[in-house]
Amino acid sequence: MSFANNSIRRISHLIEDIITALRAGSRRVKGKLLLKGVKRMRIAQVAPLYESVPPRLYGGTERVVSWLTEQLLSMGHDVTLFASGDSVTNATLIPICKQALRLDPDCIDPLAHHTLMVERVFSQAEEFDLIHFHIDYFHFPLSRRVQIPCVTTLHGRLDLPDLVPLYKEFAEVPVVSISDAQRHPLPWVNWVATVHHGLPADSLLLNKKGGDYLAFLGRVSPEKGVDRAIEIAIRSGMKLKVAAKVDRGDRDYFERKIKPLLDNPLIEFIDEIGASEKQDFLGNAAALLFPIEWPEPFGLVMIEAMACGTPVIAHPFGSVPEIIRDGVAGFQVRDVGEAVKAVGRLGEIDRRECRRHFELNFTDERMAGDYVKIYNRLIQPKSASITVEEGALNWMAVESPTPSTT
Which range (20-29, 31-40, 142-151) has the least confidence? Predict the structure, then answer.
């Protein structure tokens, strides 16, 4: 479907919502329309404790929880956030630990803190209309035993053999995928919707010109492909700036495989960066390199780059075909050779259209609206009028090919 048709469809839906509101009678809460008869929901958001909400540095899940929480508040809902004590939010914060566990030198056992959080959430369950979990499956034994509706967004990879018996046991628990590709290993669980991530439209701005370097932003690990990004840059003769987190578990890989590659004068290693630094880092780049070799469930950095108008050159694994419209928001490439050729084609990308692709598909407003539909469906299960579309994004014509790793 073309961008024109996509826009017409979204405008049509907006007009339908407004007409419905006018017919039913409506009230405004904090500037947003709430339909008469639609309850102002009391929603609990339960975040991982490894990073603050939002995270100070690296941390995709916690950043998404922050965007969702604040957007739900702006829509007029009552939101309580269970998170680390150094989180910053306009919601009611229930601090479980004093600070993000990854940055706490005194934290030895993170599971102890998460067990405590689950207990506190369910001890207050009657105060909420719905509880939204972002902590994988940790709470499943309790959520299946309470009357309060619970839903879980799964943010991680699901292609692990250990997960099969667990999800077979809890096959009735309602879960949300962050891409259709994420579902492939476990297609038989109770998927209620796919909701692609979205970020505030004004958090990152269009840079119409870009710059003269390639960017890599993420985590140093074999599957993320920083070594391939370095090879692409060197073969292209372009500078590469690497802003990457090195976990303790990946330190040996970094020292053995990546550090020797940083001696090349084209490569600049910056370490982790925070949200305030992303505008310059991504906006001033000619392109973002995303040469992954694993089924990435989403890849938040891709939509952050697109928000700046910066095209993405990515391997078509996991969610990539759902996010990157080839030739508009970047290029899908099969190997390093194709990536080098794509670098030479960056002049074909209109950075304004790249930004437009983001605006049409990946804002926090769209994301929160999708979740509200899910919440209403779970709270009022007999209502057939509230649905969330599943499957490919509007602009996608065919299912992406199944990639093979090398």
Answer: 20-29
Are residues 73 and 93 in contact, defined by beta-carbon separation less than 8 angstroms? no
Type and span of the H or E element at 102:
none
pLDDT of 384 reads: 41
86: nearest Cα among 62, 109, 64, 108: 62
* 364-368: average pLDDT: 97
Burial class (CB in 10 A: 0-12, 13-18, 19+), 326: middle
- The long-range contacts involving 262-266, CB below 8 angstroms and separated by at least 24 positions, are 264/230, 264/234, 266/233, 266/234, 266/237, 266/238, 266/239, 266/240
In angstroms, rounded to a whole number, what is the distance separating the alpha carbons of residues 348 and 313?
13
Token reading at 330? 């970047």
Query: Which tens digit of pLDDT belongs to each residue from 375-384?
Result: 999 998 764 4
Rounded to whole angstroms, how far apart are CA atoms 66 and 54? 5
Any idea which of 13-27, 54-68, 97-111, 185-199 has the lowest mean pLDDT?
13-27
- Greatest CA span in the chain, whole angstroms? 66
**Please, which residues bridge with residue 32 across strands?**
29
Half-sphere exposure of 353 (CA within 13 A, CB side): 14
**Span 320-343, pLDDT tens digits:** 999 999 999 999 999 999 999 999
Contact 405, 334 (CB under 8 A): no
Total Cβ atoms within 10 A of residue 344 = 10
Evaluate the CA torsion angle 361, 157, 294, 265 in order and state its sign: positive
Tokens linked to 17:
């919502």
- The single residue listed with the structure tokens 């020292």 is 255
Per-residue pLDDT tens for 189-227? 999 999 999 999 999 999 999 999 999 998 899 999 999
CA distance 91 to 89: 5
- Domains of the chain with bracketed CATH: 39-200+363-379 (3.40.50.2000), 213-360 (3.40.50.2000)
Burial classification of residue 108, based on how many CB atoms lie within 10 Å of its CB (0-12 exposed, 13-18 middle, 19 or more buried): exposed
Q: What is the mean pLDDT of residues 102-121?
A: 93
Radius of gyration for the chain, computed over Cα atoms and rounded to the nearest angstrom? 21
Torsion from C-alpha of 36, 38, 44, 50, nearest 10 degrees:
-90
